[in-house]
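Hi Y.,

Following your request, here is the sequence exactly as I used it, all 75 residues.
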Amino acid sequence: MNIKDIVKDNTVRFVRYRQGIAYYGVNVPAEGNYIFPVPLEDIGDATLELEDKAILFMRYIRRAIREGSFVPLAS
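Below is the corresponding structure, written out as tokens. Let me know if you'd prefer a different format.
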């Protein structure tokens, strides 16, 4: 997966929260919907929105792909 193709002109959506981790979903062109974790300890005083620009989450998407936690969102 090419990270630039995932984040360019795309949005992420909040899916759920569990044990200090916010999970966001993103639609990957030609692949489908994926989910990835955003640890709240990394957020500091930033605001997590229900929907936001994917480019702002590029760091978390890249990390999730590398660590294997960027997974298809079950329907």
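The first helix runs from residue 3 to 7.

Thanks again,
Q.
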